[in-house]
Design goal:
By secondary structure, this protein is α+β, with helices and mostly antiparallel strands. It has two domains: 51 residues, Molybdopterin biosynthesis moea protein, domain 2 (Alpha-Beta Complex), CATH 3.90.105; 34 residues. 37% of the residues lie in helices and 13% in strands. The strands form two sheets. The chain has a two-stranded antiparallel sheet with strand order 1-4. It has a two-stranded antiparallel ribbon with strand order 2-3.
């Protein structure tokens, strides 16, 4: 189970917990496979995140992760130890199953 921002939800995701309002009323039940209409409804109700089935994994593509890594280490390109740290992160990203 992982918590996902409603903005990042995609149709086909399955709710691991019910979505409830402030008074505890169930809005969308556990086990519901989300459709575009569900996601639109969640956004219109200002629900920020929900729990979906599956293991926590990256919400970005490998290319996006590597671009962010380059941007984060841009100021330290001349520092040998930071290059080692950057390489470790790059190897980790390359080994992820995305």
């Amino acid at each position: 189970m992982k918590r996902v921002s409603v903005e990042l939800l995609k149709p086909g995701a399955k709710l691991a917990k019910p979505v409830v309002n402030d008074s505890g009323m169930i809005l969308i039940g556990e086990g519901t496979v989300l459709k575009d209409s569900h996601i639109d409804r969640l956004q219109s109700m200002s629900i920020s995140s929900v729990f979906i089935e599956g293991t926590a994994g990256p919400l970005k593509t490998r290319e996006e992760l590597l671009a962010e890594l380059d941007a984060r280490f841009q100021k330290t390109e001349g520092e040998p130890y930071m290059l080692i740290v950057k390489r470790m992160f790059k190897d980790y990203i390359d080994g992820m199953s995305i």
